[in-house]
Amino acid sequence: MATKKKTNEESIEETDLMDEEVEEVVIEVPDGEPTIDDLPGVGPATAEKLVEAGFNELLSIAVMSPSELATAAELGEAVSAKIIAAAKKLANIGGFLSGNELLERRSHVMKLTSGSKALDELLGGGFETQAICEVYGEFGSGKTQIGHQLAVNTILPVEQGGFGGEVFYIDTEDTFRPERIAQMARGIGLEPEMILERIHVARAYNSAHQMLLVDEIKRMSKNIEVKLVIVDSLTSHFRSEYLGRGKLAERQQKLNKHLRELKQLSDICNALVLVTNQVHSKPDAMWGDPTKPIGGHIVGHASTFRIYLRKSKGGRRIGRLVDSPNLPEGEAIFNVVADGIRD
Ligand code: GTP
Ligand code: MG
Description:
Blueprint: H1 2-10, H2 14-17, H3 21-24, H4 44-52, H5 58-62, H6 66-73, H7 77-91, H8 99-106, E1 111-112, H9 117-122, E2 127-128, E3 131-137, H10 143-154, E4 166-171, H11 178-187, H12 192-197, E5 199-203, H13 207-220, E6 226-232, H14 236-241, H15 248-268, E7 272-277, E8 279-281, E9 291-293, H16 296-302, E10 305-311, E11 316-323, E12 330-337, E13 340-342
Parallel strand pairs: 3-7, 3-10, 4-5, 4-6, 6-7
Antiparallel strand pairs: 1-2, 8-9, 10-11, 11-12, 12-13
The structure holds guanosine-5'-triphosphate and magnesium ion (MG).
């Protein structure tokens, strides 16, 4: 048995992993933070497949379903199930965490300034990591402007309200403008080139491409300190590709998967995920605001924070915190000016 285990660790083919033996392998928790190299029964070939597919952290493997991992890393489903089970043990997420442990994880949450004190205060000090924040509102309400400003601010050092990290921007509507980033960078006295170098932009051509780009970010997060991921807009491709009632269920399923992957990314990288969303009018709404964000409750449940943006008099914008786990509802007034988002 002991010698058999050694060969297991040396190099094991996928088919070998099917062997029931793998289940008997004693999982020894190594000193320090365990990595995927500590997964029992995963030989170099399988490890390489995992890393290539963007799974370089145990947590990212542990949260997958066997069929998802099988597809993503081109492995057998039985193998994937075993790898996931082992990753769960090593990553210690198989069970409940105590309140204190949760508090410890939450203690890593960072807050990003938006450039507007009022907006920061509405969010209890700024835009949080380990969370998805959805900004929704009609055209021209300032969603893309907030995305640009947060991208610039993310690069600021922590002492200045930033994350000291880099930005991945998934652009679905071709509205990312490096010129606007440069303008906002100068607005806080920073070198535009230094900022633009740290903002990685990809144009998503359809919803499937949009989802693939999240995997790509996961892969790149091995070498880059990812602190902000922007999807602008989250829903436009889904909305135009899945038309009609008959496609609704499929659309919601895909959106849900996309959001789950984004949430994982925010946890793994301790990053903020900002998604923008348009509204559609609900003419049958008798009271209150007749507009509703696209994607309905799927997007609503997946987002940790939801901010509803409205245009107001004199170019002002009103941001309303609609949904938050620990903050009261409220509103903040801010402006979009040449330098960016300001009070
Ligand atoms: P959609 O993507 O169409 O749904 O809209 P959005 O919510 O993303 O709107 P966006 O963030 O693009 O806001 C556009 C508005 O921001 C413009 O109408 C201007 O009021 C303002 N804005 C954009 N760029 C500048 C600028 O350089 N200077 C100033 N002062 N305002 C700007
Ligand atoms: Mg926009």
